[in-house]
Design a protein that fits this description.
With 289 residues, this protein is an alpha+beta fold. The protein has helices at 43-56, 76-83, 90-100, 102-107, 191-197, 201-212, 247-252, and strands at residues 8-19, 23-24, 30-31, 38-41, 108-112, 128-132, 135-137, 140-145, 148-154, 172-189, 228-237, 254-258, 271-275, 284-287.
């Protein structure tokens, strides 16, 4: 596989309708928001969805969620020990991890290292091996403030009866959702780091496919099928390693503007999506599924 040779930046527009895009466990699992009322999706949440899509496509993933575990290992340490057993060189350990797991050579990872005996240039006496991945994902923020809705629900659990024969109050709960939000997901792929992890042109194609289908097989009671949708993927491939423009300038070239700032948006049609041209760098525009 050919190692990636051109810098890549991307911008993804995601639509959220009556769903909880990313719950905040420190705030009763309400959708994450900024102090200004804009909706948020953490980079960790987005990477989790990308990893799940990688797994759906048949690729080996190191950081697996419990319900998607496909190799029987119940922890990351057990998975690493079984797959990288006997490697005593830090460089070899990192290379083997990158070769085996797509998410490691994409996003990087820190491994506990117990190798003894053999030394290499990276041996500094520490007990970990760090891999810096070339794919970086930003915190996603909605294009305008969002409206949060909450409804009271009855939980599907067998609550204990009280002394008077009624169900205990813990059978009641709340469900929170975003009425509508248009979120922007930004990221980039660094060539210099890709060379170190072995991230290839084919791997970049996998990332593109994952972004386009980000919400496939991701439905739940908080995110019903069809409530979250990828609208557009803007894929910028530079003509050199370092990039023709800075990543920040590329990301700013995609502007999402509310048509009527005095009304709450209810769909993507309430926004203007403006692509500011950059000389010599035209994005590949891909519709979501």
């Amino acid at each position: 596989m050919a190692i990636l040779s051109n810098k890549i930046d991307f911008v993804v527009l995601a639509s959220v309708t009556m769903a909880n895009a990313n719950g905040d466990p420190l705030n009763g699992n309400r959708p994450r928001t900024t102090y200004d009322g804009f909706g948020e999706m953490s980079d960790v949440c987005i990477k989790r969805k990308i990893r799940n899509r990688m797994q759906d496509m048949g690729h080996s993933i190191f950081v697996q969620s419990d319900e998607r575990c496909d190799d029987g290992f119940t922890s990351l340490s057990k998975r690493a020990e079984a797959s990288l057993k006997g490697i005593t060189s830090r460089n070899e350990y990192a290379e083997a991890a990158c070769e085996k797991w797509l998410d490691v050579r994409s996003f990087g990872q820190v491994f506990a290292f117990k190798g003894k005996g053999k030394k290499d240039d990276s041996d500094d006496g520490s007990t970990s091996v760090g891999v810096r991945g070339p794919v970086s994902i930003h915190q996603s923020v909605s294009s305008s403030p969002i409206e949060l809705l909450s409804i009271q629900i009855t939980k599907s659990v067998n609550g204990e009866e009280t002394k008077d024969g009624k169900k205990s109050p813990d059978t009641m709960g709340q469900k929170h959702m975003v009425r509508y939000g248009l979120y922007t997901i930004k990221g980039s792929i660094n060539v210099q780091l890709a060379e170190k992890t072995g991230f290839s042109e084919e791997d970049a194609g996998v990332i593109k496919g994952c972004l386009r289908t980000l919400f496939e097989n991701d439905s739940s009671s908080a995110r019903p099928d069809g409530s979250m949708e990828i609208l557009k993927v803007f894929w910028f491939r530079h003509n050199c390693k370092g990039g023709q423009y800075s990543t920040a300038k590329v990301h700013r070239s995609i502007e999402v503007k509310l048509k009527n700032e005095n009304e709450l948006p209810t769909s993507a049609d309430d926004y203007d999506i403006i692509v500011h041209p950059l000389e010599g760098l035209e994005p590949e525009v891909i519709d979501g599924v």
